[in-house]
Every structure is written in C-alpha cells, then in structure tokens.
Design goal:
Blueprint: E1 2-6, E2 22-27, H1 30-39, E3 44-47, H2 50-57, E4 63-66, H3 75-78, H4 96-107, E5 111-117, E6 128-130, E7 133-137, H5 156-163, H6 173-181, H7 186-196
C-alpha cells in the first residue's frame, strides 16, 4: 500500500503504522524533515510544498493523510483578538485546508483523512471530531475523547516520553517543544489508520 503523509512533521501520526506499506512524507522544513528521516529511514522524504505535491501526485497513492498548518484556524489564536489594541494583527484563515478537503473528496479514489485542530468558527464542511481534533475523511472515525493533538503544558522531556520520540539535544529546546506540540499522538494516528481499513481496534493507552 502506497501512503502519502503530508505536512509530516516528525511523523507522530505515522509512528505506529505497520504492514506492507510504502510511505512518502512531505515536509517543507529541512531540519524537521531530517528528524523525520532519523526515525523512519525507509520512508521517502520530500522537502517541499505539501499542498502542491498533493495536486501533482495524489493519483500515485492508496491512502493520504494531510495535516495542514493550523494556527489561523485554532481557537487558541482567536483568543488573541482581545489584544488587538495591543498590536495583535488578525489573519485570514488559510483556506488551503478546505481546498484539500474538497479536492480529495472530488478526485481521490483511495482512502484519505485531513486532520486539523478544532476551529474558532463553525467548520465549513462537517468533520468527525475526536478530542481536540477535526478529521475530514471518506471513512468513519470513532471518537477518542482522551487523545489530544498535543499537550502544551509539559516540558520537552515529558512530551518526548508521551509521544515516544527522543529528539537529539543538538536542537534548541524551543524548537524541540514546538515540533513536539505539533506532533499527533501515535496512538491517535494508529486509530485513524485502522479505521480507514476496518482493522480491529486495540486499546493501546
């Protein structure tokens, strides 16, 4: 099975996937892509624009996971609207999220999921919800209420333990914390993957 992992980060969603799979991961940050490669040396790593790669290569895959950037959609960032008088500048929501959802529903023949945080607005296309996540998919995803996308209140070492990724200390701690915050819990990535192919669920946590 050929899998496309878009906006791959360090591969939290992909960590527990197993079986006869070939994974192509797309990540635009070379440092983060190098960390991904250290954990998944057999995957094909593309350093580049995931949004464009999807459009050019979607037909080559059987399963697609996409996690577009979430800051312009998140409830956390919308809280900053109270700080406009202190210099906060609001931004348009990045509509590449919905471009990919619509495109995949219309053109992709395999299984797909687009993951993002819960938004500060009513979603324009109804998603599945689980914990702090929205999922748009062409298969059913049961809720896992206790699984968050990332816990931001712990230090880097605890986050590494939670997610099962020990990142080389050569990277600055703020950088490590940021990429761990954006890391989907592996158990949640496995739950979604199993849902796509109707694999019997196992309680791993």
């Amino acid at each position: 099975m050929k899998i496309l992992n878009l906006y791959a980060g360090i591969g939290g969603n992909r960590k527990l996937w197993a079986g006869d799979i070939e994974v192509t991961a797309v990540e635009n940050n070379k440092q983060i892509a190098d960390i991904y490669k250290s954990f998944f040396p057999n995957d094909v790593i593309v350093v580049g624009d995931a949004h464009k790669y999807l459009l050019d290569h979607y037909m080559e895959f059987d399963f697609i996971w996409s996690s577009p950037p979430c800051p312009t959609h998140s409830r956390f960032n919308n809280l900053k609207k109270e700080q406009i008088d202190k210099g906060f500048k609001p931004k348009y929501p990045d509509m590449k999220l919905y471009e990919e959802i619509i495109f995949l529903f219309q053109y992709f023949k395999g299984k797909f999921v687009v993951e993002n945080v819960k938004s500060y607005y009513e979603p324009l296309i109804k998603p599945f919800e689980s914990g702090n996540h929205y999922f748009w998919a062409n298969f059913h995803i049961n809720k896992l209420e206790d699984m968050d996308r990332g816990i931001r209140t712990k230090n880097a070492e605890q986050k590494e333990k939670d997610r099962g990724f020990i990142i080389d200390k050569k990277y600055p701690i703020r950088f490590r914390e940021r990429i761990l915050n954006n890391c989907v819990f592996p158990e949640l990535g496995l739950h979604v993957f199993n849902s796509a192919f109707k694999v019997k669920q196992q309680i791993l946590f």
